[in-house]
């Protein structure tokens, strides 16, 4: 019973306290409007004001904990120039800010007294899109071809100082596990501060199908071999295995694979073993293995 009265009295005390008038600071992001059509704001995420407001306690609590804060809109037309930069005296925007706060909050003061910002010429550029993919496939399934983005490039707009540094834009990661069918998804582009995209989403198609393993014996070649010399390998061929999508099984031919060693590297290393490299292979196969990777050799002068 004592605990009940204790909780009840605490709640009652809290309600009485929250019904009183309080003064507190709330930080708002500033959104500049009425910018010249050929100009854009630089470092817009840093443009903020602190509004000292008076309100009933529970209203302040709502704003600070639960209510999403809309940015305060200020007109760039009210700014003044100082060298290359611009500034707005926040005291001149008191009535404008007060109207945007609404009737629940009474504006007491605004800080800082001067809001400084920079404008830059608007620049446009077309860049490629690089998706972030984290995909695992079900057993006996694989990616059977290149993915397709639609579109694969977008136009970005923003300050020249920012746009000039951007070579590509990325998407939020697409994470999928145990995939056994072709993927068709919509991807959202990662935003970049002060940069505007011609569109914020792209679609991706990534073909997935069953695979099978193929194994060939591929003869070893020697590249950069000087005239008058011959290199004999032991063994003179190696086993090459790889995975290929079932639909492309009949496209794989042993002559599409080339395994070679470099004569210049043999001369440089003076090793009794020649290191082999897979110098060409079909672009639609995966998990290629060459065995062995090193072989014995003899250099013969003709």
From TrEMBL:
Coiled coil: none annotated. Transmembrane segments: none annotated. It comes from the Bacteria. PANTHER family: CDAA REGULATORY PROTEIN CDAR (PTHR37804). This is YbbR-like domain-containing protein. It comes from Tenuifilum thalassicum.
């Amino acid at each position: 019973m004592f605990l009940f009265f204790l909780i009840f009295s605490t709640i009652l005390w809290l309600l009485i306290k929250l019904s009183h008038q309080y003064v507190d600071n709330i930080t708002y992001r500033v959104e500049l409007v009425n910018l010249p059509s050929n100009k854009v704001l630089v470092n817009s995420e840093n443009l903020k004001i602190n509004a000292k407001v008076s309100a009933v306690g529970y209203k302040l609590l709502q704003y600070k904990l639960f209510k999403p804060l809309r940015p305060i809109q200020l007109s760039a037309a009210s700014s003044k120039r100082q060298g290359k930069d611009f500034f707005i005296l926040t005291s001149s925007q008191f009535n404008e800010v007060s109207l945007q706060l609404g009737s629940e909050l009474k504006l007491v003061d605004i800080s800082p007294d001067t809001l400084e910002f920079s404008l830059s010429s608007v620049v446009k550029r077309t860049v490629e899109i690089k998706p972030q993919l984290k995909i695992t496939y079900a057993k006996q399934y694989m990616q059977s071809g290149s993915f397709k983005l639609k579109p694969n490039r977008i136009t970005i707009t923003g300050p020249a100082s920012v746009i000039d540094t951007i070579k590509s834009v990325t998407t939020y990661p697409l994470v999928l596990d145990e995939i056994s069918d072709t993927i068709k998804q919509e991807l959202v582009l990662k935003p970049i501060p002060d940069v505007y995209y011609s569109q914020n989403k792209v679609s991706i198609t990534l073909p997935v199908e069953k695979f099978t393993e193929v194994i060939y014996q591929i003869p070893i070649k020697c590249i950069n071999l000087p005239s008058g010399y011959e290199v004999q390998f032991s063994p003179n061929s190696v086993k090459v295995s790889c995975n290929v999508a079932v639909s492309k099984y009949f496209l794989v031919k042993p002559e599409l694979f080339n395994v070679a060693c470099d004569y210049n590297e043999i001369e440089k290393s003076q090793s009794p073993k020649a290191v082999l490299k897979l110098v060409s292979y079909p672009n639609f196969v995966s998990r290629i293995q060459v065995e062995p990777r090193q072989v014995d050799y003899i250099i013969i002068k003709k």
